[in-house]
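Hi,

I'm pasting everything inline rather than attaching a file, because the server keeps stripping attachments. The sequence lines come first, and each chain or strand is labelled.
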Amino acid sequence: MAATLATVRSRSGDRHHRGAGRWFVLAGAVVVALLVVAPLLVMLLNAFKSPDDYTQHGPLSLPTSLYLDGLVNFWQRTEFPVKLWNSFFISAVVAVAACALSLLNAYAIGIGRIKGRMWVVLLFLLANMLPQEALIYPLFDMARQVGLSNSQWSVIIIFTVIQSAFGTYLLASVLGTFPPALLEAAALDGAGRWRILWRVVFPIVRPTLMVLMIFFFIWTWNEFFIPLVMLTTNDTQTIPIALASLQGDRMMDAPTTNAGALVSLVPALVFFLIFQRTLTRGVTAGAVK
Amino acid sequence: MTATLSPPAAASRADARTRRRRRGTTLPYLAYLLPGAVLFVLVIGYPLVTNVYISLFSWRGGLAPLTWVGLDNYTELWHDAAFWTSFQNSVAMIVAMVLVPTVIGLLLAAVLFDYLGRRFGARVASVLRATYYLPQILPVAVAGVLWNWILNAQTGALNEILRAVGVADPPNWLGDPSTALPSVMLVLIWVQIGYPVVIFMAALQRVDPELYEAAELDGAGWWRRFRAITIPQIRPETFVVTLTCTVAALKVFGPIYVLTRGGPESSTLVPSYYSYLNFFDKSRVGYGAAVATVLTVVILVVAVVILALQTRAERAEEVGR
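And the predicted assembly:
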Protein backbone atom coordinates (compact mmCIF):
# COMPACT_ATOMS: atom_id res chain seq x y z
CA MET A 1 0.00 0.00 0.00
CA ALA A 2 2.82 2.37 0.92
CA ALA A 3 4.26 1.55 -2.48
CA THR A 4 1.11 2.66 -4.28
CA LEU A 5 1.08 5.84 -2.30
CA ALA A 6 4.70 6.60 -3.10
CA THR A 7 4.31 5.95 -6.80
CA VAL A 8 1.19 8.01 -6.87
CA ARG A 9 2.97 10.89 -5.23
CA SER A 10 5.99 10.74 -7.48
CA ARG A 11 3.66 10.87 -10.46
CA SER A 12 2.01 14.08 -9.41
CA GLY A 13 2.59 17.05 -11.65
CA ASP A 14 3.88 15.31 -14.75
CA ARG A 15 0.75 14.77 -16.76
CA HIS A 16 2.59 14.83 -20.04
CA HIS A 17 4.75 11.84 -19.18
CA ARG A 18 2.78 8.77 -20.15
CA GLY A 19 5.82 6.53 -19.81
CA ALA A 20 6.90 4.09 -17.15
CA GLY A 21 5.14 5.72 -14.21
CA ARG A 22 1.72 4.40 -15.08
CA TRP A 23 3.03 0.83 -15.04
CA PHE A 24 4.22 1.31 -11.47
CA VAL A 25 0.81 2.50 -10.42
CA LEU A 26 -0.80 -0.43 -12.20
CA ALA A 27 1.65 -2.80 -10.50
CA GLY A 28 0.77 -1.33 -7.11
CA ALA A 29 -2.97 -1.77 -7.72
CA VAL A 30 -2.42 -5.33 -8.95
CA VAL A 31 -0.32 -6.17 -5.87
CA VAL A 32 -3.20 -5.04 -3.65
CA ALA A 33 -5.59 -7.16 -5.73
CA LEU A 34 -3.28 -10.18 -5.32
CA LEU A 35 -3.15 -9.67 -1.57
CA VAL A 36 -6.95 -9.69 -1.55
CA VAL A 37 -7.37 -12.88 -3.60
CA ALA A 38 -4.37 -14.73 -2.11
CA PRO A 39 -6.31 -16.27 0.81
CA LEU A 40 -9.04 -17.42 -1.57
CA LEU A 41 -6.50 -18.96 -3.93
CA VAL A 42 -4.84 -20.76 -1.02
CA MET A 43 -8.27 -22.09 -0.08
CA LEU A 44 -8.89 -23.32 -3.62
CA LEU A 45 -5.44 -24.98 -3.78
CA ASN A 46 -5.95 -26.86 -0.53
CA ALA A 47 -9.58 -27.86 -0.82
CA PHE A 48 -8.73 -30.85 -3.01
CA LYS A 49 -5.30 -31.77 -1.64
CA SER A 50 -4.78 -34.81 0.58
CA PRO A 51 -3.43 -34.25 4.13
CA ASP A 52 -0.23 -36.15 3.21
CA ASP A 53 0.28 -34.00 0.16
CA TYR A 54 -0.24 -30.94 2.36
CA THR A 55 2.37 -31.93 4.95
CA GLN A 56 4.86 -32.83 2.23
CA HIS A 57 4.50 -29.99 -0.23
CA GLY A 58 2.93 -27.24 1.85
CA PRO A 59 -0.02 -24.95 1.11
CA LEU A 60 1.28 -23.34 -2.09
CA SER A 61 1.82 -26.40 -4.25
CA LEU A 62 -0.68 -27.67 -6.79
CA PRO A 63 -2.39 -30.85 -5.53
CA THR A 64 -0.71 -33.95 -6.93
CA SER A 65 -4.05 -35.69 -7.30
CA LEU A 66 -7.67 -34.69 -6.95
CA TYR A 67 -8.62 -35.48 -3.35
CA LEU A 68 -12.34 -35.38 -2.71
CA ASP A 69 -12.51 -36.85 0.80
CA GLY A 70 -12.45 -33.39 2.39
CA LEU A 71 -15.49 -32.33 0.43
CA VAL A 72 -17.33 -35.61 1.04
CA ASN A 73 -16.42 -35.46 4.71
CA PHE A 74 -17.81 -31.93 5.08
CA TRP A 75 -20.86 -32.66 2.95
CA GLN A 76 -21.87 -35.67 5.06
CA ARG A 77 -21.00 -34.33 8.48
CA THR A 78 -22.98 -31.12 8.01
CA GLU A 79 -25.71 -32.80 5.97
CA PHE A 80 -25.05 -30.03 3.54
CA PRO A 81 -28.22 -30.30 1.40
CA VAL A 82 -30.34 -29.75 4.53
CA LYS A 83 -28.29 -26.68 5.47
CA LEU A 84 -28.46 -25.37 1.94
CA TRP A 85 -32.24 -25.66 1.90
CA ASN A 86 -32.53 -24.05 5.35
CA SER A 87 -30.40 -21.10 4.29
CA PHE A 88 -32.27 -20.74 1.03
CA PHE A 89 -35.71 -21.06 2.57
CA ILE A 90 -35.06 -18.52 5.33
CA SER A 91 -33.36 -16.00 3.03
CA ALA A 92 -35.98 -16.26 0.29
CA VAL A 93 -38.99 -15.87 2.58
CA VAL A 94 -37.33 -12.95 4.38
CA ALA A 95 -36.42 -11.24 1.09
CA VAL A 96 -40.00 -11.36 -0.22
CA ALA A 97 -41.74 -10.61 3.08
CA ALA A 98 -39.40 -7.75 3.99
CA CYS A 99 -39.92 -6.16 0.57
CA ALA A 100 -43.70 -6.37 0.94
CA LEU A 101 -43.55 -4.88 4.43
CA SER A 102 -41.16 -2.12 3.30
CA LEU A 103 -43.51 -1.23 0.47
CA LEU A 104 -46.56 -0.99 2.73
CA ASN A 105 -44.65 1.14 5.26
CA ALA A 106 -43.14 3.36 2.61
CA TYR A 107 -46.53 3.82 0.92
CA ALA A 108 -47.94 5.25 4.12
CA ILE A 109 -44.89 7.43 4.75
CA GLY A 110 -43.84 8.53 1.26
CA ILE A 111 -47.19 8.75 -0.56
CA GLY A 112 -49.59 9.03 2.36
CA ARG A 113 -47.32 11.65 3.98
CA ILE A 114 -48.63 10.77 7.42
CA LYS A 115 -47.99 13.14 10.30
CA GLY A 116 -44.57 12.93 11.93
CA ARG A 117 -43.18 10.89 9.06
CA MET A 118 -39.70 12.34 9.62
CA TRP A 119 -39.65 10.77 13.06
CA VAL A 120 -41.00 7.46 11.82
CA VAL A 121 -38.25 7.29 9.21
CA LEU A 122 -35.61 8.22 11.80
CA LEU A 123 -36.97 5.51 14.09
CA PHE A 124 -36.62 2.90 11.34
CA LEU A 125 -33.11 4.10 10.54
CA LEU A 126 -31.96 3.89 14.15
CA ALA A 127 -33.64 0.49 14.60
CA ASN A 128 -31.44 -0.78 11.82
CA MET A 129 -28.36 0.24 13.80
CA LEU A 130 -29.28 -1.45 17.08
CA PRO A 131 -26.94 -4.20 18.21
CA GLN A 132 -28.79 -7.51 18.00
CA GLU A 133 -27.47 -8.38 21.45
CA ALA A 134 -29.86 -5.81 22.91
CA LEU A 135 -32.84 -7.73 21.49
CA ILE A 136 -31.75 -11.32 21.58
CA TYR A 137 -32.55 -12.51 25.07
CA PRO A 138 -36.14 -11.21 25.13
CA LEU A 139 -36.65 -12.54 21.58
CA PHE A 140 -35.24 -15.90 22.61
CA ASP A 141 -37.64 -15.94 25.57
CA MET A 142 -40.64 -14.84 23.51
CA ALA A 143 -39.96 -17.54 20.92
CA ARG A 144 -39.96 -20.14 23.67
CA GLN A 145 -43.22 -18.87 25.11
CA VAL A 146 -45.07 -19.07 21.80
CA GLY A 147 -43.59 -22.44 20.91
CA LEU A 148 -41.21 -21.14 18.24
CA SER A 149 -37.94 -22.05 19.91
CA ASN A 150 -35.51 -23.60 17.46
CA SER A 151 -37.96 -22.69 14.69
CA GLN A 152 -36.95 -21.11 11.42
CA TRP A 153 -40.10 -19.03 11.55
CA SER A 154 -38.79 -17.10 14.54
CA VAL A 155 -35.66 -16.22 12.55
CA ILE A 156 -37.79 -15.34 9.51
CA ILE A 157 -40.06 -13.01 11.48
CA ILE A 158 -37.13 -11.28 13.18
CA PHE A 159 -35.17 -10.68 9.97
CA THR A 160 -38.26 -9.59 8.04
CA VAL A 161 -38.65 -6.75 10.53
CA ILE A 162 -34.94 -5.89 10.77
CA GLN A 163 -34.42 -5.83 6.99
CA SER A 164 -37.65 -3.94 6.35
CA ALA A 165 -36.44 -1.23 8.72
CA PHE A 166 -33.75 -0.44 6.19
CA GLY A 167 -36.09 -1.01 3.25
CA THR A 168 -38.66 1.39 4.67
CA TYR A 169 -36.01 4.05 5.14
CA LEU A 170 -34.85 3.73 1.55
CA LEU A 171 -38.24 3.27 -0.16
CA ALA A 172 -39.85 6.09 1.79
CA SER A 173 -37.38 8.56 0.34
CA VAL A 174 -37.86 7.11 -3.15
CA LEU A 175 -41.67 7.34 -2.88
CA GLY A 176 -41.36 10.84 -1.40
CA THR A 177 -40.42 12.02 -4.91
CA PHE A 178 -43.14 10.01 -6.65
CA PRO A 179 -44.76 12.08 -9.44
CA PRO A 180 -48.09 13.33 -7.97
CA ALA A 181 -49.59 13.68 -11.45
CA LEU A 182 -49.68 9.91 -11.79
CA LEU A 183 -51.48 9.53 -8.47
CA GLU A 184 -53.98 12.24 -9.35
CA ALA A 185 -54.72 10.66 -12.71
CA ALA A 186 -55.30 7.30 -11.07
CA ALA A 187 -57.52 8.86 -8.42
CA LEU A 188 -59.57 10.61 -11.12
CA ASP A 189 -60.06 7.24 -12.77
CA GLY A 190 -61.64 6.15 -9.52
CA ALA A 191 -58.84 3.94 -8.26
CA GLY A 192 -58.71 3.45 -4.51
CA ARG A 193 -55.60 3.54 -2.38
CA TRP A 194 -55.09 -0.22 -2.54
CA ARG A 195 -55.44 -0.29 -6.33
CA ILE A 196 -53.11 2.71 -6.72
CA LEU A 197 -50.50 0.94 -4.62
CA TRP A 198 -50.48 -2.21 -6.78
CA ARG A 199 -51.37 -0.80 -10.19
CA VAL A 200 -49.46 2.52 -10.18
CA VAL A 201 -46.82 2.63 -7.47
CA PHE A 202 -45.64 -0.99 -7.47
CA PRO A 203 -44.79 -1.26 -11.19
CA ILE A 204 -42.76 1.93 -11.06
CA VAL A 205 -40.69 1.05 -7.98
CA ARG A 206 -40.23 -2.56 -9.06
CA PRO A 207 -36.54 -2.09 -10.07
CA THR A 208 -35.74 -0.63 -6.64
CA LEU A 209 -37.66 -3.46 -4.98
CA MET A 210 -35.65 -6.01 -6.97
CA VAL A 211 -32.41 -4.51 -5.69
CA LEU A 212 -33.73 -4.48 -2.14
CA MET A 213 -34.81 -8.08 -2.46
CA ILE A 214 -31.34 -9.17 -3.60
CA PHE A 215 -29.71 -7.26 -0.75
CA PHE A 216 -32.12 -8.74 1.80
CA PHE A 217 -31.44 -12.22 0.47
CA ILE A 218 -27.65 -11.89 0.67
CA TRP A 219 -27.71 -10.14 4.05
CA THR A 220 -29.98 -12.78 5.56
CA TRP A 221 -27.93 -15.56 3.99
CA ASN A 222 -24.77 -14.18 5.64
CA GLU A 223 -26.33 -13.47 9.04
CA PHE A 224 -24.63 -15.14 11.95
CA PHE A 225 -25.60 -14.01 15.42
CA ILE A 226 -29.39 -14.49 15.54
CA PRO A 227 -29.39 -17.88 13.74
CA LEU A 228 -26.57 -19.00 16.06
CA VAL A 229 -28.70 -18.29 19.11
CA MET A 230 -32.16 -19.23 17.81
CA LEU A 231 -31.43 -22.37 15.79
CA THR A 232 -30.04 -24.99 18.11
CA THR A 233 -30.28 -28.32 16.29
CA ASN A 234 -28.76 -29.78 13.16
CA ASP A 235 -31.97 -29.93 11.18
CA THR A 236 -32.77 -26.21 11.50
CA GLN A 237 -29.34 -24.57 11.21
CA THR A 238 -28.03 -22.51 8.28
CA ILE A 239 -24.79 -22.92 6.35
CA PRO A 240 -22.69 -20.32 8.21
CA ILE A 241 -23.64 -21.83 11.58
CA ALA A 242 -22.89 -25.38 10.38
CA LEU A 243 -19.48 -24.29 9.12
CA ALA A 244 -18.59 -22.40 12.29
CA SER A 245 -19.78 -25.18 14.60
CA LEU A 246 -17.44 -27.69 12.97
CA GLN A 247 -14.50 -25.60 14.15
CA GLY A 248 -12.25 -27.08 16.78
CA ASP A 249 -13.47 -30.49 15.71
CA ARG A 250 -10.50 -32.86 15.48
CA MET A 251 -11.85 -34.22 12.21
CA MET A 252 -11.44 -30.81 10.60
CA ASP A 253 -8.21 -31.21 8.63
CA ALA A 254 -7.06 -28.77 5.99
CA PRO A 255 -9.01 -30.22 3.04
CA THR A 256 -12.24 -30.50 5.05
CA THR A 257 -11.94 -26.91 6.26
CA ASN A 258 -11.13 -25.55 2.83
CA ALA A 259 -13.66 -27.63 0.93
CA GLY A 260 -16.25 -26.63 3.54
CA ALA A 261 -15.42 -22.94 3.19
CA LEU A 262 -15.49 -23.29 -0.58
CA VAL A 263 -18.92 -24.94 -0.90
CA SER A 264 -20.27 -22.52 1.69
CA LEU A 265 -19.32 -19.48 -0.33
CA VAL A 266 -20.39 -20.87 -3.72
CA PRO A 267 -24.14 -20.19 -3.30
CA ALA A 268 -23.52 -16.57 -2.26
CA LEU A 269 -21.08 -16.10 -5.13
CA VAL A 270 -23.42 -17.62 -7.72
CA PHE A 271 -26.30 -15.54 -6.50
CA PHE A 272 -24.16 -12.42 -6.66
CA LEU A 273 -22.97 -13.16 -10.20
CA ILE A 274 -26.51 -13.85 -11.45
CA PHE A 275 -27.87 -10.62 -10.09
CA GLN A 276 -24.84 -8.40 -10.52
CA ARG A 277 -26.38 -6.67 -13.54
CA THR A 278 -29.68 -6.07 -11.79
CA LEU A 279 -27.70 -4.59 -8.92
CA THR A 280 -25.70 -2.16 -11.04
CA ARG A 281 -28.83 -1.16 -12.92
CA GLY A 282 -30.77 -0.71 -9.70
CA VAL A 283 -28.02 1.34 -8.07
CA THR A 284 -27.99 3.66 -11.08
CA ALA A 285 -31.76 3.94 -10.90
CA GLY A 286 -31.41 4.89 -7.27
CA ALA A 287 -28.75 7.45 -8.13
CA VAL A 288 -31.09 9.17 -10.59
CA LYS A 289 -33.48 9.67 -7.77
CA MET B 1 -37.57 5.49 -13.88
CA THR B 2 -35.87 8.63 -15.17
CA ALA B 3 -38.64 9.26 -17.65
CA THR B 4 -41.25 9.76 -14.98
CA LEU B 5 -39.25 12.34 -13.10
CA SER B 6 -40.47 15.90 -13.43
CA PRO B 7 -38.01 18.80 -13.06
CA PRO B 8 -37.50 19.88 -9.43
CA ALA B 9 -39.44 23.18 -9.66
CA ALA B 10 -42.47 21.58 -11.21
CA ALA B 11 -42.26 18.74 -8.73
CA SER B 12 -42.32 20.98 -5.69
CA ARG B 13 -45.23 22.98 -7.10
CA ALA B 14 -47.16 19.82 -7.77
CA ASP B 15 -46.14 18.66 -4.33
CA ALA B 16 -47.75 21.70 -2.70
CA ARG B 17 -50.85 21.08 -4.74
CA THR B 18 -51.17 17.50 -3.56
CA ARG B 19 -50.60 18.50 -0.01
CA ARG B 20 -53.47 20.97 -0.22
CA ARG B 21 -55.68 18.45 -1.93
CA ARG B 22 -54.94 15.76 0.60
CA ARG B 23 -55.11 17.70 3.81
CA GLY B 24 -56.98 15.56 6.30
CA THR B 25 -56.91 12.55 4.06
CA THR B 26 -53.64 11.07 5.31
CA LEU B 27 -55.44 9.21 8.06
CA PRO B 28 -56.50 6.21 5.93
CA TYR B 29 -52.87 5.66 5.00
CA LEU B 30 -52.11 4.78 8.60
CA ALA B 31 -53.74 1.41 7.91
CA TYR B 32 -50.82 0.61 5.62
CA LEU B 33 -48.40 1.29 8.44
CA LEU B 34 -50.29 -0.98 10.82
CA PRO B 35 -48.66 -4.36 10.04
CA GLY B 36 -45.22 -2.78 10.04
CA ALA B 37 -45.87 -0.95 13.28
CA VAL B 38 -47.20 -4.03 15.08
CA LEU B 39 -44.26 -6.18 13.99
CA PHE B 40 -41.83 -3.38 14.79
CA VAL B 41 -43.10 -3.10 18.34
CA LEU B 42 -43.11 -6.88 18.74
CA VAL B 43 -39.64 -7.60 17.37
CA ILE B 44 -37.71 -4.42 18.18
CA GLY B 45 -39.54 -2.11 20.58
CA TYR B 46 -40.72 -4.59 23.21
CA PRO B 47 -37.48 -6.65 23.30
CA LEU B 48 -35.37 -3.48 23.55
CA VAL B 49 -37.35 -2.21 26.53
CA THR B 50 -37.43 -5.67 28.11
CA ASN B 51 -33.66 -5.91 27.75
CA VAL B 52 -33.19 -2.68 29.69
CA TYR B 53 -35.62 -3.99 32.31
CA ILE B 54 -33.74 -7.30 32.60
CA SER B 55 -30.51 -5.37 33.15
CA LEU B 56 -31.93 -4.23 36.50
CA PHE B 57 -32.14 -7.81 37.76
CA SER B 58 -29.89 -10.64 38.71
CA TRP B 59 -31.17 -13.54 36.62
CA ARG B 60 -29.74 -16.91 35.62
CA GLY B 61 -32.18 -17.11 32.71
CA GLY B 62 -35.01 -19.46 31.80
CA LEU B 63 -37.33 -20.29 34.66
CA ALA B 64 -34.96 -19.13 37.41
CA PRO B 65 -36.28 -16.33 39.64
CA LEU B 66 -35.46 -12.69 38.89
CA THR B 67 -33.92 -10.75 41.76
CA TRP B 68 -34.16 -6.97 41.66
CA VAL B 69 -30.72 -5.38 42.00
CA GLY B 70 -31.37 -1.88 40.66
CA LEU B 71 -28.30 -0.39 39.06
CA ASP B 72 -25.89 -2.89 40.61
CA ASN B 73 -25.09 -4.47 37.25
CA TYR B 74 -24.04 -1.08 35.94
CA THR B 75 -21.84 -0.26 38.96
CA GLU B 76 -20.24 -3.65 38.53
CA LEU B 77 -19.60 -2.88 34.86
CA TRP B 78 -17.86 0.33 35.90
CA HIS B 79 -15.32 -1.70 37.88
CA ASP B 80 -15.10 -4.60 35.43
CA ALA B 81 -11.72 -4.66 33.64
CA ALA B 82 -13.04 -7.01 30.91
CA PHE B 83 -15.82 -4.53 30.09
CA TRP B 84 -13.32 -1.69 29.61
CA THR B 85 -11.03 -3.95 27.58
CA SER B 86 -13.93 -4.78 25.31
CA PHE B 87 -14.60 -1.12 24.52
CA GLN B 88 -10.88 -0.45 24.08
CA ASN B 89 -10.89 -3.23 21.51
CA SER B 90 -13.87 -1.53 19.85
CA VAL B 91 -11.53 1.37 19.11
CA ALA B 92 -9.17 -1.11 17.43
CA MET B 93 -12.17 -2.44 15.45
CA ILE B 94 -12.97 1.11 14.31
CA VAL B 95 -9.36 1.55 13.15
CA ALA B 96 -9.55 -1.76 11.24
CA MET B 97 -13.07 -1.39 9.82
CA VAL B 98 -13.42 2.37 9.31
CA LEU B 99 -10.19 4.34 9.39
CA VAL B 100 -7.84 2.12 7.37
CA PRO B 101 -10.38 0.91 4.78
CA THR B 102 -11.73 4.42 4.20
CA VAL B 103 -8.29 5.97 3.67
CA ILE B 104 -6.99 3.13 1.50
CA GLY B 105 -10.35 2.82 -0.26
CA LEU B 106 -10.36 6.52 -1.11
CA LEU B 107 -6.88 6.29 -2.62
CA LEU B 108 -7.64 3.08 -4.51
CA ALA B 109 -10.92 4.45 -5.85
CA ALA B 110 -9.25 7.67 -7.02
CA VAL B 111 -6.32 5.79 -8.58
CA LEU B 112 -8.67 3.36 -10.34
CA PHE B 113 -11.09 6.03 -11.49
CA ASP B 114 -8.99 8.88 -12.78
CA TYR B 115 -5.58 7.32 -13.27
CA LEU B 116 -5.71 3.65 -14.25
CA GLY B 117 -9.19 3.91 -15.72
CA ARG B 118 -8.07 6.65 -18.08
CA ARG B 119 -4.72 5.15 -19.03
CA PHE B 120 -5.59 1.46 -19.24
CA GLY B 121 -9.31 1.58 -19.97
CA ALA B 122 -12.42 1.21 -17.84
CA ARG B 123 -12.26 -2.58 -18.05
CA VAL B 124 -9.01 -2.81 -16.10
CA ALA B 125 -10.45 -0.54 -13.43
CA SER B 126 -13.67 -2.54 -13.12
CA VAL B 127 -11.87 -5.89 -12.91
CA LEU B 128 -9.63 -4.55 -10.13
CA ARG B 129 -12.66 -3.12 -8.35
CA ALA B 130 -14.47 -6.47 -8.52
CA THR B 131 -11.39 -8.18 -7.07
CA TYR B 132 -11.21 -5.78 -4.13
CA TYR B 133 -14.92 -6.38 -3.51
CA LEU B 134 -14.68 -10.18 -3.46
CA PRO B 135 -14.27 -10.63 0.35
CA GLN B 136 -17.44 -8.56 0.88
CA ILE B 137 -19.56 -11.26 -0.76
CA LEU B 138 -18.35 -14.07 1.50
CA PRO B 139 -20.49 -14.98 4.49
CA VAL B 140 -18.55 -13.66 7.45
CA ALA B 141 -18.38 -17.16 8.95
CA VAL B 142 -16.64 -18.43 5.82
CA ALA B 143 -14.07 -15.63 5.95
CA GLY B 144 -13.49 -16.36 9.63
CA VAL B 145 -13.09 -20.12 9.21
CA LEU B 146 -10.73 -19.62 6.28
CA TRP B 147 -8.51 -17.17 8.15
CA ASN B 148 -8.63 -19.23 11.30
CA TRP B 149 -7.05 -22.07 9.36
CA ILE B 150 -4.53 -19.83 7.55
CA LEU B 151 -3.38 -18.34 10.86
CA ASN B 152 -3.39 -21.62 12.80
CA ALA B 153 -0.07 -21.99 14.66
CA GLN B 154 0.65 -25.64 13.86
CA THR B 155 -1.08 -26.54 10.60
CA GLY B 156 -1.97 -23.15 9.18
CA ALA B 157 -0.92 -22.10 5.69
CA LEU B 158 0.93 -18.97 6.80
CA ASN B 159 3.17 -20.72 9.31
CA GLU B 160 3.80 -23.62 6.91
CA ILE B 161 5.07 -21.08 4.41
CA LEU B 162 7.13 -19.28 7.05
CA ARG B 163 8.69 -22.54 8.21
CA ALA B 164 9.45 -23.49 4.61
CA VAL B 165 11.40 -20.27 4.09
CA GLY B 166 13.39 -20.83 7.25
CA VAL B 167 11.52 -19.13 10.11
CA ALA B 168 12.15 -21.62 12.90
CA ASP B 169 9.52 -20.51 15.37
CA PRO B 170 6.72 -18.58 13.66
CA PRO B 171 4.27 -16.75 15.95
CA ASN B 172 1.01 -18.25 17.16
CA TRP B 173 -0.97 -15.53 15.43
CA LEU B 174 -4.37 -15.97 17.06
CA GLY B 175 -3.18 -17.76 20.18
CA ASP B 176 -0.74 -15.20 21.55
CA PRO B 177 -2.25 -12.20 23.37
CA SER B 178 0.28 -9.86 21.76
CA THR B 179 -0.48 -10.85 18.14
CA ALA B 180 -4.17 -11.83 18.32
CA LEU B 181 -5.64 -8.33 18.09
CA PRO B 182 -3.42 -7.18 15.19
CA SER B 183 -4.20 -10.43 13.37
CA VAL B 184 -7.95 -9.95 13.80
CA MET B 185 -7.58 -6.36 12.62
CA LEU B 186 -5.79 -7.47 9.46
CA VAL B 187 -8.57 -9.95 8.68
CA LEU B 188 -11.18 -7.22 9.15
CA ILE B 189 -9.29 -4.82 6.88
CA TRP B 190 -9.23 -7.59 4.27
CA VAL B 191 -12.99 -8.07 4.64
CA GLN B 192 -13.85 -4.36 4.58
CA ILE B 193 -11.58 -2.88 1.93
CA GLY B 194 -13.88 -3.44 -1.07
CA TYR B 195 -16.87 -1.62 0.36
CA PRO B 196 -15.44 1.93 0.34
CA VAL B 197 -13.77 1.34 -3.04
CA VAL B 198 -17.12 0.50 -4.67
CA ILE B 199 -19.01 3.34 -2.98
CA PHE B 200 -16.33 5.91 -3.74
CA MET B 201 -15.99 4.86 -7.37
CA ALA B 202 -19.73 5.24 -7.84
CA ALA B 203 -19.46 8.65 -6.18
CA LEU B 204 -16.66 9.77 -8.48
CA GLN B 205 -18.88 9.21 -11.51
CA ARG B 206 -21.04 11.99 -10.18
CA VAL B 207 -18.17 14.50 -10.17
CA ASP B 208 -18.06 16.86 -13.13
CA PRO B 209 -15.03 15.92 -15.31
CA GLU B 210 -14.63 19.57 -16.27
CA LEU B 211 -13.45 20.28 -12.73
CA TYR B 212 -10.52 17.95 -13.25
CA GLU B 213 -9.77 19.24 -16.71
CA ALA B 214 -9.72 22.83 -15.50
CA ALA B 215 -7.43 21.93 -12.61
CA GLU B 216 -5.14 20.01 -14.92
CA LEU B 217 -4.92 23.01 -17.26
CA ASP B 218 -3.98 25.14 -14.25
CA GLY B 219 -1.10 22.73 -13.71
CA ALA B 220 -2.42 20.91 -10.65
CA GLY B 221 -0.86 17.47 -10.30
CA TRP B 222 -2.65 14.26 -9.38
CA TRP B 223 -2.13 14.65 -5.65
CA ARG B 224 -3.39 18.24 -5.59
CA ARG B 225 -6.41 17.35 -7.67
CA PHE B 226 -7.09 14.46 -5.31
CA ARG B 227 -7.03 16.77 -2.30
CA ALA B 228 -8.72 19.79 -3.81
CA ILE B 229 -11.42 18.10 -5.91
CA THR B 230 -11.89 14.41 -5.16
CA ILE B 231 -12.05 14.54 -1.37
CA PRO B 232 -14.44 17.53 -1.04
CA GLN B 233 -16.66 16.34 -3.91
CA ILE B 234 -17.38 12.93 -2.44
CA ARG B 235 -17.81 14.06 1.15
CA PRO B 236 -21.46 12.83 1.37
CA GLU B 237 -20.38 9.29 0.48
CA THR B 238 -17.51 9.51 2.97
CA PHE B 239 -20.07 10.29 5.66
CA VAL B 240 -22.24 7.34 4.68
CA VAL B 241 -19.24 4.98 4.69
CA THR B 242 -18.04 6.33 8.03
CA LEU B 243 -21.48 6.00 9.61
CA THR B 244 -22.28 2.49 8.39
CA CYS B 245 -18.79 1.11 9.05
CA THR B 246 -18.49 2.67 12.51
CA VAL B 247 -21.81 1.14 13.54
CA ALA B 248 -20.70 -2.20 12.07
CA ALA B 249 -17.37 -1.99 13.91
CA LEU B 250 -19.09 -1.34 17.23
CA LYS B 251 -21.46 -4.27 16.59
CA VAL B 252 -18.85 -6.74 15.29
CA PHE B 253 -19.53 -10.28 16.52
CA GLY B 254 -19.19 -12.99 13.84
CA PRO B 255 -15.47 -12.59 13.06
CA ILE B 256 -14.57 -12.55 16.76
CA TYR B 257 -16.71 -15.61 17.46
CA VAL B 258 -15.14 -17.58 14.63
CA LEU B 259 -11.54 -16.35 14.96
CA THR B 260 -10.76 -16.08 18.66
CA ARG B 261 -13.89 -16.19 20.87
CA GLY B 262 -12.57 -13.05 22.51
CA GLY B 263 -9.37 -14.69 23.66
CA PRO B 264 -6.59 -15.27 24.43
CA GLU B 265 -6.83 -13.62 27.84
CA SER B 266 -9.60 -11.28 26.61
CA SER B 267 -7.15 -9.65 24.20
CA THR B 268 -9.78 -9.61 21.43
CA LEU B 269 -12.90 -9.31 23.56
CA VAL B 270 -15.54 -6.95 22.13
CA PRO B 271 -18.76 -5.70 23.80
CA SER B 272 -21.14 -7.79 21.67
CA TYR B 273 -19.21 -10.96 22.41
CA TYR B 274 -18.96 -10.07 26.09
CA SER B 275 -22.73 -9.74 26.36
CA TYR B 276 -23.21 -13.03 24.44
CA LEU B 277 -20.80 -14.69 26.87
CA ASN B 278 -22.79 -13.46 29.86
CA PHE B 279 -26.15 -14.40 28.32
CA PHE B 280 -25.45 -17.90 27.14
CA ASP B 281 -22.20 -19.08 28.68
CA LYS B 282 -22.01 -17.65 32.18
CA SER B 283 -25.82 -17.52 32.63
CA ARG B 284 -25.54 -13.98 33.95
CA VAL B 285 -28.46 -12.68 31.91
CA GLY B 286 -28.96 -9.42 33.82
CA TYR B 287 -25.30 -8.54 33.47
CA GLY B 288 -25.27 -9.42 29.77
CA ALA B 289 -28.35 -7.23 29.28
CA ALA B 290 -26.50 -4.35 30.97
CA VAL B 291 -23.54 -4.74 28.60
CA ALA B 292 -25.94 -4.80 25.62
CA THR B 293 -27.74 -1.71 26.91
CA VAL B 294 -24.49 0.25 27.25
CA LEU B 295 -23.47 -0.85 23.76
CA THR B 296 -26.83 0.30 22.38
CA VAL B 297 -26.46 3.72 23.98
CA VAL B 298 -22.89 4.09 22.66
CA ILE B 299 -23.96 3.15 19.12
CA LEU B 300 -26.96 5.49 19.11
CA VAL B 301 -24.88 8.38 20.45
CA VAL B 302 -22.13 7.80 17.87
CA ALA B 303 -24.71 7.52 15.06
CA VAL B 304 -26.52 10.70 16.09
CA VAL B 305 -23.21 12.61 16.38
CA ILE B 306 -22.12 11.49 12.89
CA LEU B 307 -25.56 12.37 11.44
CA ALA B 308 -25.42 15.78 13.13
CA LEU B 309 -21.91 16.47 11.81
CA GLN B 310 -23.12 15.54 8.32
CA THR B 311 -26.09 17.90 8.51
CA ARG B 312 -23.81 20.70 9.73
CA ALA B 313 -21.30 20.10 6.93
CA GLU B 314 -24.10 20.16 4.35
CA ARG B 315 -25.43 23.39 5.75
CA ALA B 316 -21.95 24.98 5.80
CA GLU B 317 -21.53 24.02 2.18
CA GLU B 318 -24.82 25.58 1.19
CA VAL B 319 -23.90 28.84 2.96
CA GLY B 320 -20.52 28.86 1.25
CA ARG B 321 -22.11 28.52 -2.16
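The radius of gyration of chain A is 25 Å.

If the labels don't parse on your end, tell me and I'll reformat.
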